[in-house]
Amino acid sequence: SYPTTPCSPQSEASDEIYPPNLNPITIQGLITKAMAGEDDQKERKGHIAKPEYFDGNKTKFKAWWRQVLTYLRNNKKDFIMITDDEKIDYVISYLRGPKAEVWSQNYYDQYFKDDTESWEKTWATFETEITDAFQDSNLAAQAQIKIDHLHQGQRPVEEYFQELEILMTQAGYKKEDQYILKTVRTSVNDALVDKVYGQVTVPMTY
């Protein structure tokens, strides 16, 4: 018998579909594109910065707690399936410095069960208790004093209202409160007051 030349896979009758010949440049391009897509997804997923460490300074608690809740809210896929215990552990891991660590150690000693490695507190209760422990009880009073002495001066009126709104939130006021309307009338420059009250309809809020 005579030797036969082997047939290439493509020449044989087959239902298999062979991939096209890819040169190294094409392969590298596909890999680079895929990796870029993964990086984009990671960037979109992690665009909210993690909270800073909290040192127990009550004047900083409100801003820090907002960072914590914002991070948890924007990473729901990571946190939706974890337990209350794990969320409490996560927050406590950001308490650093003497004041914050004393509170976290006392909280651990009172409410963490070593035998079951679990907390006796729910996440909702923990939220309330850490807020009660670190929120600035004098914040509203301090904001009230600042509102009483707030004036526009030489700065743009937009800057005045930005500061006023921050203080209003801290003091618990709303835009339509008569005290705030009176404060605005006496605190902004006279030219602006005359312009506002020269309108046909006087605004009921600032």
TrEMBL record:
Protein name, as recorded: Retrotransposon gag domain-containing protein
A Pfam family: Retrotrans_gag
Location of the Retrotransposon gag domain: 94-184
Domain of life, source organism: Eukaryota
Organism per entry: Gloeophyllum trabeum (strain ATCC 11539 / FP-39264 / Madison 617) (Brown rot fungus)
